[in-house]
């Protein structure tokens, strides 16, 4: 009988050890679940929308246009936030004109005062391109930053 008591004790030790491990793990899972539900309960605010940072357009740009008018241009921009101000030098109709516009993320719009042209397009690094419209027609344009 003594022999069976030892055998019974040796079987109990692993069972007790497994029960202890499960109890410890179980309390960790319970703690994690409680922390997770606590986190969900106290943070109901909606995620803030991701703002797309406007590209830096300030400086000098050189480009060309075709369509109703064909030629080249040079833009000189100053930028304050998303607002653009400056001048554009056109080869045709020849002259320097005031210009203002805006940039939002990669989207850019601007207009040349005096010639009635409006430009829309997109920026990608030091390049931009799009289309222009004027009272006499429109077409594509593109430019790259030179300074």
Largest sheet: 8 strands, antiparallel, barrel
Rough outline: globular
Assembly state of the chains shown: single chain
Which segments are poorly predicted (pLDDT under 50) over 5 or more consecutive residues? Answer: 10-40
Secondary-structure arrangement, i.e. CATH architecture of the largest domain:
Beta Barrel
What is the count of distinct domains?
Answer: 2
Strand content: 35-45%
Secondary-structure class:
alpha+beta
Number of helices: 1
Number of strands: 8
Write structural notes for this entry:
With 147 residues, the chain is α+β, with helices and mostly antiparallel strands. It has two domains: 1-45; 59-145, Porin. The chain is 28% helix and 45% strand. The protein is built from one helix and eight strands; from the N terminus they run H-E-E-E-E-E-E-E-E. It has an eight-stranded antiparallel barrel. Strand 2 and strand 3 form a beta hairpin. It starts with a helix and ends with a strand.
Which descriptors apply to this entry?
147 residues; alpha+beta; Porin; 1 helix
Element layout with pairings:
Layout: H1 2-42, E1 59-65, E2 71-80, E3 83-90, E4 95-104, E5 107-112, E6 117-124, E7 127-134, E8 137-145
Antiparallel strand pairs: 1-2, 1-8, 2-3, 3-4, 4-5, 5-6, 6-7, 7-8
How do you describe this structure in short?
The protein is α+β, with helices and mostly antiparallel strands. The protein has one helix spanning 2-42, and strands at residues 59-65, 71-80, 83-90, 95-104, 107-112, 117-124, 127-134, 137-145. The protein starts with a helix and ends with a strand.
